[in-house]
Design goal:
It contains 22 helices and 13 strands. It has 540 residues and is of the alpha/beta class. It is globular and about 70 Å long.
Length: 540
């Protein structure tokens, strides 16, 4: 997900089939099948490695930056953004040329023959690993670009093969992020005899209900709230390493200081308004083309568009009758996931829990969300909102607590679901007794301490948030020790002050320090104006 965010960030900078399944008895043998999220390596039909791509997106954007800015200026002055759209498309589209799917959202070669993007058939690629979970696991090694429902069908065959090879009678399913979507599709669509063999299902930060920034991007409903931009730059950008490993921290510090200052003096809102206007001006040209030839060519990414945004997203990405005819197969896949899986997921989960399937949900919080949507101010794991990944938690805005008025409105019997830092109310979750929410753990992280939590669930009979003192509903992650401990209250830095005289003066001092450091380095010969603006460094 980091690469998705880095690409989006670069562009923005420039502008009911439920079945009973009882818990495993002592006589049952259980295997665990694990589904990772997006990001495993991909190969074309000839075995050539195509993802991660060797194409330097950021480097190429830097090369055409001057021309992009000129074209953007022309667009803002004359209202004609065609040159800007063409140049932006030409800079980004090549990154996906070798891995984008065909118009039906399928992996086919030049002759239209299907191939496996992971370089092998995931159904028969059965390998055991001991790197996680007691007793290890079998990883379903799927092509993450393809339709979630198609991969769920393959998962069914994979599970049958694993159980046949091992002699197991039950299976535990663990789906992480996009893998959670596939597990949700499996639970919805698999036949009765297959679902009867499911022992436990763990949805780890699932994107079943959508990811806000992807939904905003695909639908064109991009909202840049100044505070959300400030939050993300200050509190999530560094941790996600968006600028790349080994980048000079001074660049990040400069960006952070400038954004914080212009937000404190109420200038950032003007800038975000301008960017929103540019996005609206180019979305039918550049945005729809770029999406169509990149992430929107992957049906899997459409599963991360919120159900209420799907129709609008289809209208943007396939914005002519001719395109809707040309991409009819893709559109059918998109709507099928929404109608059969996404809209039914919560009802199916409730039905399955009533009939014996033990479902665990793990969500995260205390990070700023990617600032593209109107939900970006809310608590998140830096990629998806806590509300979405927990199936319904009510949360404060990032850097705040729930209001006193809201807390007083919680029925007394539901106060046990309120986090002790007053940031999360889990009583509104779909499965409040089976939902754990972890503080200070990034979306992309799966540490050993979470592995231990999952092991406890898989080896316990009907574990809930009340079963073990060490594993209550709200847990705090310590990166240094890789441990989870109960949330006991607010920690230093949890609450963000903004808009006070103190914060304005502090921000002003930092911007002055930044300027002084810049000129000091310039005078000491550590920087050159020529190098900064692309000229000959020696000449400067």
């Amino acid at each position: 997900m980091k690469k998705v965010i880095s690409i989006v960030l670069a562009v923005i900078m420039l502008m009911a089939m439920a079945v009973p399944a009882m818990s495993a008895s002592a006589a049952d043998t259980v295997v665990t099948v694990y589904l990772e999220g997006y990001g495993s390596g991909l190969y074309d039909a000839n075995g050539k490695h195509v993802y991660p791509t060797d194409y330097d997106i950021m480097g190429n954007l830097k090369e055409v930056l001057d021309d992009l800015l000129k074209d953007l200026g022309k667009g803002m002055l004359l209202g004609d953004y065609d040159d800007y759209c063409d140049r932006l498309y030409d800079a980004l589209a090549p990154a996906f040329a070798e891995m984008k799917l065909d118009n039906n959202g399928e992996a086919t070669d030049a002759n239209g023959n299907a191939y496996f993007g992971r370089g092998h058939n995931p159904v028969t690629h059965i390998k055991h690993s001991n790197s996680k979970f007691d007793g290890g696991y079998y990883r379903f090694d799927y092509d993450w670009r393809l339709s979630v429902e198609y991969n769920a069908d393959l998962l069914e065959q994979f599970i049958k093969n694993v159980m046949a090879r091992t002699g197991a009678t039950k299976v535990n399913l663990v789906g992480r992020c996009l893998g959670g979507n596939i597990v949700s599709a499996y639970l919805e669509n698999a036949p009765e005899e297959s679902l009867a063999k499911v022992n436990k299902a763990i949805l780890y930060i699932p994107s079943t209900l959508g990811v806000e920034f992807i939904s905003a991007l695909f639908s064109g409903n991009i909202v840049l709230h100044p505070d959300a931009v400030d939050n993300y730059v200050k509190y999530s950008l560094a941790g996600n390493d968006i600028l790349g490993e080994g980048e000079d921290d001074s660049l990040l510090q400069a960006i952070t200081t400038i954004v914080e200052f212009v937000n404190e003096v109420y200038i950032l809102g003007f800038g975000t308004d301008v960017v929103e206007e540019i996005v609206q001006a180019v979305k039918d040209n550049a945005l729809s083309r770029i999406l169509r030839d990149s992430y929107a060519s992957f049906p899997s990414f459409w599963s991360m568009v919120k159900a209420e945004d799907v129709d609008e997203a289809i209208a943007l990405v396939y914005n002519t009758p001719e395109l809707q005819t040309e991409y009819a197969g893709m559109i059918e896949k998109i709507k099928s996931y929404r109608d059969k899986v996404q809209l039914n997921a919560e009802e199916t989960m409730l039905e399955l829990t009533e009939k014996g399937v033990d479902i665990m949900v793990i969500s995260k919080y205390n990070f700023a969300n990617f600032p593209l949507s109107d939900d970006a101010l809310k608590q998140s794991d830096s990629v998806a909102s806590t509300t979405a990944t927990s199936f319904g938690a009510t949360t404060s805005n990032f850097g705040e607590t729930l209001s006193d008025k809201y807390i007083k409105s919680i029925p007394e019997e539901n106060l046990k679901y309120l986090s002790k830092d007053n940031m999360i109310d889990a009583s509104t979750c779909l499965l409040p007794e089976k939902t754990w929410i972890i503080k200070n753990l990034y979306h992309d992280t799966f540490p050993d301490s979470v592995d231990k939590l999952m092991n406890k669930f898989m080896t316990s009979e009907n574990m809930t948030i009340n079963t073990y003192e060490e594993y209550p509903q709200f847990l705090k992650f310590d990166e240094e020790t890789d441990t989870l401990s109960p949330v006991e209250g607010l920690d230093e830095g949890d609450i963000i002050e903004r808009g006070t005289i103190k914060t304005k003066l502090s921000s002003l001092m930092r911007i002055i320090t930044l300027i002084l450091n810049f000129f000091t380095k310039l005078l000491n010969g550590e920087l050159s104006l020529g190098g900064l603006f692309g000229g000959d460094e020696a000449a400067a």
